[in-house]
Specification:
33% of the residues lie in helices and 18% in strands. By secondary structure, it is of the alpha/beta class. The protein has two domains: 294 residues, FAD/NAD(P)-binding domain (3-Layer(bba) Sandwich), CATH 3.50.50.60; 118 residues, FAD/NAD(P)-binding domain, CATH 3.50.50.60. The strands form four sheets. Strands 1, 2, 3, 4, 5, 6, 7, 8 and 19 form a nine-stranded mixed β-sheet that branches. Strands 10-17-11-12-13 form a five-stranded parallel β-sheet, covered by helices on one side. Bound molecules: flavin-adenine dinucleotide (FAD).
Length: 469
């Protein structure tokens, strides 16, 4: 049972902290409206998950309040935490901070201890997944972050007349066009591409026989069934474990490598040098680091792995890429180099691809966006197609033009998704990267807003006449 009075006390302390730190207090961005009188937002943030909320709170701390966060999901269902994530706890260590932006009393630990006590926190091995979602909900409410849910951002377009973005949004079937000087895409880990279903699956199998781990899965219906899982990363194992605990008769996990990786590069990445200065490296250096990290591979958290292998009806198949899948008598027959096997249902732990042309928000802009393949040619033994499609972002996560002059407004659009990995390291779509990445996005936006209005600011200085005596 959470101790509400503890939370009230924490909020009082936090309000005091923010009051103590409230300098300079005055709003400074000069409001703009369109010729037709429509107000222009300073910043629109697409995505109300941890990333979008943290960027919004960073902007508000810098006295930019003419902002709006929109999320296509209903309130409380932002991100994966209460939708398709199926692990009992976060995968990141509990001490990893991020959304707090350096305010100790805004951390998940302070929030947790205020309600359940320090001892309970000490006894906590990892933060439960839904507790993290609760923390984000409180964070949003306490900071008064303006979020509009059930609202989907459509194809962005630059409005040359108003020098801002036209942002079509749809809320429960009603479409309107918002105007915003800056837009942040905090649209999730798949926000620079999409969750990927291999072509031979979607073309050969009816949808009733498979699901990607990012989709809704009726695990009750898998009771007594034989399940095949493609991939052996964290989500593949999470789903295998839920299928096992839901009573599947057998679960088989397939992966390409000979053995499962058991070293997590994310734990290596959690150091200040990498988190804060990876972006300062040369193109060749950034490429080699991320290629190494990608080649080290994804792995299930230790607890998930141990829990899965404890099941006698759980089987792992290394060096077993799926070469084909076909529907045979209502079952799925998969073919690997070693054999063919039949399953009642298959789950795809195949992650996501990076490809901006797949993003609905970017259809009108993508052709002009600079990508790594436009700037860097990797050595023959260091090729990686997905990495070459990563956007070549600026130091504040801003998009850049493919050719100078083709779309000079692109730096007003910020990519705070996992697509930032090659350009800036861990940033969007990871808790581990937030501490050092949120300030970079926020500072990039404040810098642009101030510099774009420098004439207006100078005029306000020239007319400034607050008499001291
Ligand atoms: C299953 C899973 C488990 C993970 N576990 C961890 C972990 O333990 N530790 C860790 O550090 N990281 C983890 N991650 C990685 C990462 O931290 C999460 O993906 C996290 O949710 C990213 O936060 P975000 O705010 O960037 O994106 P999200 O939380 O995904 O939020 C993005 C939001 O954008 C909205 N959106 C998308 N497109 C639009 C649009 N066009 N218009 C309006 N809204 C839109 C979505 O509805 C969503 O709510 C995990 C990821 C997954 C998928």
């Amino acid at each position: 049972m959470s101790n509400q009075s503890g939370l009230v006390a924490l909020e009082a302390t936090l309000s005091r902290d923010m009051e103590l730190l409230n300098y300079p207090a005055k709003p400074w961005v000069l409001p703009r409206s369109a010729a037709n009188g429509q107000a222009i937002l300073d910043v629109l943030v697409a995505g109300g998950g941890q990333g979008g909320l943290a960027v919004a709170s960073g902007l508000m701390q810098r006295k930019i309040s003419n902002i709006l966060v929109v999320d296509k999901n209903p309130q409380g269902s932002e991100g994966p935490w209460r939708t398709f994530a199926r692990m009992p706890t976060l995968r990141t260590p509990k001490h990893v901070t991020g959304p707090d932006q350096g305010n100790p009393n805004l951390t998940i630990r302070a929030w947790y201890e205020a309600q359940w006590g320090a001892e309970s926190w000490d006894n906590l091995k990892l933060v439960p997944r839904t507790t993290w979602a609760q923390y984000l909900e409180w964070y949003r409410k306490f900071l008064g972050i303006p979020v509009r849910n059930d609202t989907t951002v459509g194809a962005l377009e630059w409005n040359h007349a108003e020098r801002c973005f036209s942002v079509p949004v749809q809320t429960k079937g009603t479409t309107e066009v918002l105007l915003a000087r800056k837009v942040v895409l905090a649209t999730g880990i798949d926000g620079s591409g999409r969750w990927e279903v291999p072509g031979f699956i979607s073309s050969n199998l009816p949808k009733t026989l498979y699901a990607h781990t990012s989709e809704h899965i009726d695990f009750e219906a898998l009771k007594g069934k034989r399940i095949g899982v493609m991939g052996a990363g964290a989500s593949a194992f999470d789903n295998a474990l839920v299928a096992l605990s839901s009573g599947a008769s057998e679960v088989h996990v397939f992966y390409r490598r000979r053995t499962l990786p058991n070293v997590n590069p994310f734990r290596w990445m959690e150091n200040i040098g990498f988190l804060d200065h990876f972006a300062d490296l040369s193109d060749a250096e950034r490429w080699r680091f991320i290629l190494q990290i990608v080649r080290m591979g994804q792995l299930p958290p230790q607890a998930t792995y141990t829990a899965a292998v404890a099941h006698s009806n759980f089987h792992m198949h290394g060096e077993s890429p799926w070469l084909n899948a076909e529907a045979v008598d209502g079952k799925v027959r998969i073919t690997t180099p070693n054999n063919t096997m039949d399953f009642d249902y298959v789950i795809l732990g195949t992650g996501f691809v990076t490809d901006l042309s797949l993003r609905p928000e970017l259809v009108k802009l993508e052709p002009n966006i600079l990508l790594w393949k436009d700037r860097y040619s990797a050595p023959a033994d260091a090729q990686n197609e997905d990495m070459s499609r990563h956007p070549y972002l600026g130091s504040s996560f801003e998009f850049q033009e493919k050719t100078p002059g083709c779309a000079p407004y692109l730096p007003s659009l910020f990519n705070y998704t996992y697509g930032c990995l090659l350009s800036l390291g861990l940033g969007g779509a990871s808790i581990s990267g937030m501490k050092y990445s949120v300030p970079k996005v926020v500072r990039g936006i404040t810098r642009q807003l101030f510099m774009e209005d420098s004439d207006l600011h100078f005029a306000s200085l020239q007319t400034f006449d607050a008499k001291e005596f």
